Amino acid sequence: MAAGGARYVRYIIISLFVLIVFYFVSSSTDVVPPIKPHIPVYNGNGPSTPKQPTPDHGSTHLTDSTGSTHSSPNSHKVSNNYDPSKYPLALTPNDPGWNDLSGIAPGPRINATFVTLARNTDVWEIAKSIRHVEDRFNRRYNYDWVFLNDKPFDDLFKKITSSLVSGKTHYGLIPKEHWSFPEWIDQDKAAKVRQDMKDRKIIYGDSISYRHMCRFESGFFFRHPLMMNYEYYWRVEPSVELFCDIHYDPFRYMHEHKKKYSFVISLYEYPETIPTLWDSARKFMKNHPEHIAEDNLLRFLSDDGGETYNRCHFWSNFEIGSLEWLRSKAYIDYFETLDKDGGFFYERWGDAPVHSIAAGLMLKREEIHFFNDIAYYHVPFTHCPTGEKLRTALKCHCNPDDNFDWKGYSCTSKFFDVQGLKKPEGWEEESKKD
Ligand SMILES: Nc1nc2c(ncn2[C@@H]2O[C@H](COP(=O)(O)OP(=O)(O)OP(=O)(O)O)[C@@H](O)[C@H]2O)c(=O)[nH]1
Ligand SMILES: *[C@@H]1O[C@H](CO)[C@@H](O)[C@H](O)[C@H]1NC(C)=O
Ligand SMILES: [Mg+2]
């Protein structure tokens, strides 16, 4: 059967050919070096220079170790001349790239970092936060993460966090002057206040470290040598959660829309912690009229034209903001006025109202942004975006009944009113639920 034999030979040759092709295709990733995505880092100004990887050991005396234990999958190439329209942000489900949530995001990177202040004992709680941030966003962007502490980070903290962050990790020690009583503080007076606040059962009222924390977050974190390497920050605290996919780069949003400060939750401050904060702020306004923005957001902070503070503030455990703004003369003059008045120790001023008053007075109101699409939890409040269509599109896993935005103790409704923004459909029904 000659014809049958030839057929077998043909089959064998074809099978061999298919096998060979298959072999080459499947092994080509080993043979050909993987193509690294070319990701320029956008920098609002300054020359275009490649970002140097930080050396592994102490670039400054305040850095106990950079802890860069693994390299990120992309090399953040610096370029300050990208054309935003060439890499449109996927802001809505109709925008190109919306469904592209796998692999490294194409397009430029901003000169930005995550930042966390934490103790070594916070390691497992910050691990959870990092997991949320990475899964919902950073695994595709690989931004750096700076960790700051008033004591050196231990090996466990560095090992766990650097294994979870997809970008580079840096670990910094806070200098003593940024975490201690300034010399003009009367220790006896401060101690009496703590005892009194303890008796009145004011939350963290008797804590010294909480006060150092609030003062550090108010006036120093953005000036730490590790933070000097960036223009924007995203603050992350232990035990926070993100409930929805983030389809675009919030840092780029901030940069391209000229935003300087942003929030997801706002609320009223405990009056007992800030009796004279507004007096200090008014002193600053009087002494530094040059720093007050013309089209500011004072109406969010005060219901009587600046006479009194209504206690509305952006909740600062989440913040995406401009470091350049915090490092500006305006902000530093403001912080120094407050710091001299001593309320971080004679009262218990929180960094949230301190940042919020600064933003409300010194920024133009269009420079402050509400990130509705970043769903967030920090005990005990949740921001879960209003509108089922949006939540489904973002694959959110928060319970909409938990949304705090339109509840009586939130200031977000006021923010919308003052900004002249249209509230999302369904907000009224949510505000009626308990
Ligand atoms: N290194 C260091 N970090 C601290 C210290 N106290 C607080 N932090 C950090 O500062 C941030 C705010 O502290 P929290 O204890 O979360 O304060 P809070 O958010 O007002 O209160 P909670 O409701 O308890 O979360 C967190 O990132 C903490 O990890 C401290 O003494 N040392
Ligand atoms: C990022 O910003 C910092 C602070 O402005 C600057 O010193 C640094 O050169 C910038 N880095 C890049 C890569 O542009
Ligand atoms: Mg917290």
What would a concise description of this structure say?
The chain is 35% helix and 13% strand.
What's the total helix number?
Answer: 15
Give the rounded overall mean pLDDT. Answer: 87
> What is the gyration radius calculated from CA atoms?
26 Å
| Low-confidence regions | 16-22, 24-39, 43-61, 65-76
Largest sheet: 8 strands, mixed
The dominant shape is: globular
Measured between the Cα atoms of the first and last residue, the distance is 86 Å
Strand content: 5-15%
The beta-strand count equals 16
Biased composition (Polar residues): 60-83
Keywords: Glycosyltransferase, Membrane, Transferase, Transmembrane, Transmembrane helix
InterPro entries: Glyco_trans_15, Nucleotide-diphossugar_trans
Family: Belongs to the glycosyltransferase 15 family.
Please give a structural write-up.
The chain has 434 residues and is of the alpha/beta class. The protein is 35% helix and 13% strand. The protein is built from 15 helices and 16 strands. The strands form four sheets. It has an eight-stranded mixed β-sheet. A three-stranded parallel β-sheet has the order 3-1-4. The protein has a three-stranded antiparallel β-sheet with strand order 9-15-16. A hairpin with a 2-residue loop joins strand 15 and strand 16 (381-383). The model is unreliable at 16-22, 24-39, 43-61 and 65-76 (pLDDT under 50).
Question: Which tags fit this structure?
Answer:
binds magnesium ion; eight-stranded mixed beta sheet; 434 residues; binds 2-acetamido-2-deoxy-beta-D-glucopyranose; membrane; alpha/beta; transmembrane; transferase
